[in-house]
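Quick one before lunch.
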Amino acid sequence: MTPRAVFPGFSSSLALTSDSPVGVVVDRARGCLIYDPGGKEYLDLLSGMGVAALGHAHPRVAEAISAQAARHLHVMVYGEYVIESQVRLASRLAGLLPAGLDKVYFTNSGTEAVEGAIKMVRKATGRSGMLAFRGAFHGDTTGAVSLGGNPLYRDPFVPLLPHCGLLEFNDTGSLKAINESTAAVFVEPVQSEAGVILPEPGFLAELAASCRAAGALLVFDEVITGLGRTGSLFALEREGVVPDVLLLAKAVGGGLPLGAFIASEELMSILSQDPPLGHVTTFGGHPLSCAAGLATLEVIIEDQLPARAATLGDYFADALTAAMQGDGLREVRHAGLLLGLEMDSPPLAEAFVAECLKERLLTGRTLHDDGLIRLAPPLIISEAELDDAVLRMQRALSRARSQPDA
Ligand SMILES: Cc1ncc(COP(=O)(O)O)c(C=O)c1O
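Model of the pyridoxal-5'-phosphate complex:
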């Protein structure tokens, strides 16, 4: 069933982000499956790009949303009234994080968390320089685009924020550029859009040391890595490097819009003093999103989903490698259940994603590496679903390889 047949307004009234949307018509979703109106089921290997950590319509999350909706929705701009779900989620997050990451400012999205952090680090240091990494993606508002690691998505929108520069990920030599004019360095502890690039052992520690030496702040963007995806609740645990600021979004709202930037009391007070209300948001930390987020976080912890992501990630990566490496698949990189499949060429990657869709497998490419397929299945996915995915991907790859342009 084409999107146009079901909802003619899809292309005529809804602003689209590209000329070739996936166009799966969604009727309902449960667990790791998304169903179209004809009952056709798709296995979701993307989780709405890292959002649906518990899969779709998890009963605990649905219950929390209904209970909160029956109690109250939005009542006041963020930070003015005492809202139980906000306070409980902030306290739970702070209790799980290392000391120094104890104050949570809730936003509506990841990119807004980046914007809040930009204001905070510039005001806190009195410096304007900001550095990020080649290949990085931090969101699509203007400040976040200024820190984007791919000129293709930056250049059409210049002039952007001044004094922003890029470092090379995993290149300790490039850290020399961090100096007394640097307010902060923004980094994804596992680069996602860049192609699922893992930090080499010691690189993040060296980055932290360079920041400390220059008096610059270190910001970890855990919008996609946060809440268990990479095999630990936060990716910062992988090497024990504690940043000055932590950014969350995606899974933190349990399927509803929510982001957060988290820092010390001292840093966070920068935004509430001189002037007071120096950073405000109407909907940030919406009670419904916080209730869904809290329920999600509790299930992630109770069901030990970070450990499950670590085990299943290894299992899936090994199975994909055994089934397809050398047949168009060059390499599988992964951190828990965040996987990158490096294909032999961009046309093959494109054909493979299209063939996976015919197999009713939802996979995706990234903005910054045309030859890469990125996978981020729900953390509750079963071994049987992963086995089934590997078989279907094998069939899809064999068809993709037989296409003349691939
Ligand atoms: C690492 C990272 N940071 C920031 C963002 C932006 O988050 P949002 O889309 O919620 O604005 C994304 C989105 O994909 C992301 O992957």
